[in-house]
Amino acid sequence: MYTGLLHLHSFIRWVILLLEIVVIYQCYTGMSSGRPFGAGDRKAGLFLMISAHTQLLVGLYLYLAGPWGLANISNLGFGEVMKDRVARFYAVEHIFGMLVAIVLITIGRGVAKKAIPDAKKFKRGFWLFLIALVIILATIPWPFREGISRPWF
């Protein structure tokens, strides 16, 4: 079960990255063209948030049941985990970065529901989603990252 959820977790990353790009593009074009905030904008943000929250649930299970999260902290101790670059990435950096990104995505989705001018919705959403994307890109265990890499799929 762990391996299957790890593969699902890896697959959902691509869904989130694609949706992040779509939502950022929609916010940018809406901000620069002055178009109204429409149903397509709301739905794209909603799908992004649902994907991110699903990813969070799968990731929390992997963190609690897998060898790199809580078990690693329990076995080595927090001080030893913080000294090891790979253990620290999976036990602290990855989960913390992704939690911050998911909070930003959720706030960005909440902006779409506020009764504020559409230009402000696009601008706030753009920055929240862009910062979330940067954090996600920085805390994904990419295949080219030495020691902490995971396969592309």
Name a few traits of the molecule.
80% helix; mainly alpha; 153 residues
Write the layout of secondary structure elements.
Blueprint: H1 2-33, H2 39-65, H3 70-76, H4 78-83, H5 85-113, H6 118-139
Helix pairs in contact: 1-2, 1-6, 2-5, 5-6
Word description of this protein:
The protein has 153 residues and is an all-alpha fold. The chain has one domain (2-139). 80% of the residues lie in helices and 0% in strands. The chain has six helices and no strands. It has helices at residues 2-33, 39-65, 70-76, 78-83, 85-113, 118-139. Helix 1 runs antiparallel to helix 2 and helix 5 (85-113) runs antiparallel to helix 6 (118-139). The longest helix has 32 residues, at 2-33. The protein is elongated. The two termini are 17 Å apart. The mean pLDDT is 93.
By DSSP (H or I, 4+ residues per run), the number of helices equals 6
Tell me the helix content: over 70%
- SSE series: HHHHHH
Poorly predicted runs: none
- The overall pLDDT average reads 93
Largest sheet: none
Number of domains: 1
Please give the alpha-carbon distance between the first and last residues: 17 Å
Structural class per helix/strand content? mainly alpha
Supply Rg.
17 Å
Oligomer: single chain
**Which percent range describes the beta-strand content?**
under 5%
Report the principal-axis shape: elongated
